[in-house]
Amino acid sequence: MRYAKGVCEAKHYQADSYLPYFGQARKASFGGGNALDFKTEMNAYVVTPIEDGYRIQIQANTKEDRFLYTFNIYNDGSVTLDVLSDNRDPITYLGQFEFERE
């Protein structure tokens, strides 16, 4: 999923997140840390059918935080992404799904 100022990709059990973050951090490294900019292995993922699409939930940990990414991908290609973390306020993104063929 690509945003005007960010990208979030998940493939081969790898989560790549390069998303802007606006919100309050309850605990962060000096200088703010990496926030939602990281590349790490997924701990778990679940795919669930929803009305007009699918929900994909991805759990990933970094050295700084633990994240739950919830993608709601709709048949028209629109996507909402809700990000929950242990140390930061939740944030929601809206975007379009881009399918990449290898």
Question: What keywords describe this structure?
Answer:
eight-stranded antiparallel beta sheet; about 60% strand; globular; mainly beta; about 100 residues
Written description of the protein model:
The chain has one domain. Strand 6 and strand 7 (78-85) form a beta hairpin. An 8-stranded antiparallel β-sheet has the order 1-2-3-4-5-6-7-8, with no helix packed on it. The chain is globular. It contains no helices and 8 strands. It is mainly β.
Count of discrete domains:
1
Give the strand content: over 45%
> Topology as H/E string?
EEEEEEEE
Number of strands: 8
Structural class: mainly beta
Bulk shape: globular
Radius of gyration: 13 Å
Total count of helical runs of at least 4 residues: 0
Strand order of the largest sheet: 1-2-3-4-5-6-7-8
Low-confidence stretches: none
Give the averaged pLDDT, no decimals: 81
What is the share of helical residues? under 10%
Give the quaternary arrangement of the chains.
single chain
Distance between the termini: 16 Å
Biggest sheet statistics:
8 strands, antiparallel
Write the SSE topology.
Elements: E1 2-3, E2 6-11, E3 14-18, E4 37-50, E5 53-61, E6 66-74, E7 78-85, E8 91-96
Antiparallel strand pairs: 1-2, 2-3, 3-4, 4-5, 5-6, 6-7, 7-8
Brief digest:
With 102 residues, the protein is mostly beta strands. The chain is built from no helices and eight strands.
